[in-house]
Specification:
The structure holds 2 protein chains of 2 kinds. Chain A has 5 helices and 5 strands. Chain A is of the alpha/beta class. Chain B is of the alpha/beta class. Chain B has 2 domains: 209 residues, 3-Layer(aba) Sandwich (Rossmann fold); 50 residues, no CATH class. Chain B has 12 helices and 8 strands. The chains are: A alpha/beta, B alpha/beta. At the A-B interface, helix 1, strand 2 and helix 2 of A face helix 2, strand 3 and strand 4 of B. The complex binds cobalamin, guanosine-5'-triphosphate and magnesium ion.
């Protein structure tokens, strides 16, 4: 039997908007995934340390503070530095203006999910784009 | 990545990957751990158990920090329940330990029970070995929030910390039969709330029936505010020292190894009997004959087991 997909759901930055992260965490759990929730106000360093120790398949970052252009690429860079980026799918979501999305993708985020995206879209995206076998 | 070299060189990625592989019962991980088994046994393994929401994770965080003050390294395995309906889970114990994430002397791993009953997951013992080989001085195992019968932690730990909270009232009586007996050290957490003294007295009264040489100490703590942690820490260390000086540590580990071996044999035999599609098909064909009264189930079972014994490759 294949193992469940493991996903780290993290909130980088200093804002306390955690509803979206919780909605996503529950949706992924209900889709049969093992979701590791790290809590609010995480630094990129904390997120990467957790992703590494939890050996996750997906790093899902929720951000509504406006600091996405700084924090999301930082997480990707640290994952690369730790040599784990090649096996981890990195996703972002939250209040992120459309014009910022191409730049974020260029910096290594696989996809960005903004308000109104049905959670099933995210679930399908994860299943189709995992970087390593189960 | 060479996992064997990696774990010996304290590469956390290797430890993380080996745990993932143990969760999938991967033969390569089992081979590596078997090979490095002589590196295990140095870590002291402390189980942390108690009712849901009692403060197990918060307390784990504080005790780990206390050990870090002594320059000891700490591995933490935190188990949360997997939904039996979807197979998914939200593993949230980490949220209480965020300060420890980037500490080089700490490793935290969350595990879902994945259908296993008893308060741990099937691979928890495997994960403990991985962290032991890595070289952590202490390993904490936080169980799922337990009710009555989730007592697997005794088979996995050297010392068990049972976390209670005030206001459980009659629940203590109910819990008594199951989990009260497994505590080597007790904490009454959330002692900032009313009723902590009463809970302590109730636990102590219950422990009076315990006639073993070690009297489990009961400590009031407020994990959230880091209060009472030094006393609790001292009591845990006292228990570990007691085990060592009386020779009970090795005795306990021998008992636990015995249970583990029996467990592994069961798993292995089941795997060989029904581990693949083909074998399950054979069994369902037999079942048809049993249902039609052409065969009896005892003979079928006996034949299958004999086949395993006769043929090592079965
Ligand atoms: C509710 C809310 C709050 C609540 C938060 C409660 C909580 N615990 O979450 C409260 C009242 C506390 C709050 C406070 C503030 N807020 Co506010 N808040 C909102 C509001 C109205 C809705 C957010 C929400 O919960 N939506 C519902 C959830 C389910 O949706 P979601 O988070 O967008 O998530 C969905 C998707 O984005 C996506 N998703 C999200 N994350 C992820 C992650 C992954 C991996 C994936 C795949 C998908 C995904 O999936 C989710 C489900 O579809 C938004 C405006 C808006 N319409 O978005 C402002 C908003 C986010 N807030 C804003 C601001 C400025 C603030 C304050 C700073 C206001 C102030 N000046 O005091 C404070 C900051 C507080 C703090 N400590 O951080 C701004 C942010 C501006 C920006 N980004 O530049 C917004 C956009 C309002 C605005 N238009 O100005 N806020
Ligand atoms: N008042 C008070 N609250 C506490 C104390 N310790 C922990 N808590 C709170 O109790 C809640 C549960 O704490 P956890 O540490 O997550 O409890 P747990 O036993 O690990 O929970 P599960 O793993 O879900 O069974 C959190 O909101 C904590 O902040 C304490 O000493 N006093
Ligand atoms: Mg917990």
């Amino acid at each position: 039997m294949a193992r469940p997909i493991r996903v780290l759901v993290a909130k980088p930055g200093l804002d306390g908007h955690d509803r979206g992260a919780k909605v996503i965490a529950r949706a992924l759990r209900d889709a049969g995934m093992e979701v590791i929730y790290t809590g609010l106000r995480q630094t990129p360093e904390q997120i990467v340390a957790a992703a590494l120790q939890e050996d996750v398949d997906v790093v899902a970052l929720s951000i509504l503070s406006g600091a996405h252009n700084h924090l999301l690429p930082k997480v990707v860079d640290l994952l690369k530095k730790e040599n784990v980026y090649d096996e981890m799918l990195v996703l972002g979501g939250g209040v992120i203006p459309d014009e910022d999305i191409p730049g974020l993708k260029e910096s290594g985020l696989a996809e960005i999910f903004t308000p109104g995206t049905p959670t099933q879209v995210t679930i399908d995206f994860i299943k189709e784009n995992l970087k390593r076998g189960l | 990545m060479n996992l064997e070299k990696g774990i010996l060189n304290k590469d956390k990625r290797a430890a993380a990957r080996l745990i993932t592989m143990m969760e999938s019962n991967d033969p390569e991980a089992i081979r590596i751990i078997s090979k490095l088994y002589s590196h295990t046994g140095k870590a002291k393994v402390i189980g942390i158990t108690g009712p849901p929401g009692a403060g197990k994770s918060t307390l784990t965080d504080k005790l780990a920090k206390r050990l870090r003050q002594e320059n000891k390294t700490v591995g933490i395995i935190a188990v949360d329940p997997t939904s039996p309906f979807t197979g998914g889970s939200i593993l949230g114990d980490r949220v209480r330990m965020t300060d420890l994430y980037t500490d080089p002397g700490v490793f935290i791993r969350s595990m879902g029970t994945r259908g296993h009953l008893g308060g741990l997951s099937k691979a928890t013992l495997g994960a403990v070995k991985v962290l032991d080989i890595y070289g952590f001085d202490y390993i904490f195992i936080e169980t799922v929030g337990v009710g009555q019968s989730e007592v697997d932690i005794v088979k996995a730990a050297d010392s068990v910390l049972l976390v209670m909270v005030p206001g459980l009232g009659d629940d203590i009586q109910a819990i008594k039969a199951g989990i009260m007996e497994i505590g080597d050290v007790f904490a009454v957490n959330k002692a900032d709330r009313e009723g902590a003294n009463r809970t302590q007295v109730e636990i102590e009264m219950m422990l009076e029936y315990n006639h073993s040489q070690w009297k489990p100490p009961v400590t009031q703590v407020v994990a959230l505010h880091n209060k009472g942690i030094d006393d609790l820490y001292d009591n845990i260390i006292k228990h570990l020292n007691y085990l060592e000086t009386t020779g009970q540590l090795i005795e306990k580990r021998q008992q636990n190894s015995e249970l583990e071996i029996i467990d592994l044999i069961q798993r292995d035999l089941m795997e060989r009997l029904v581990g693949n599609e083909e074998k399950r098909t054979t069994i369902s064909e037999m079942a048809r004959m049993v249902a039609n009264r052409q065969l009896d189930p005892y003979t079928v079972s006996d034949n299958l087991v004999k086949k395993i014994i006769a043929n090592d490759n079965f």
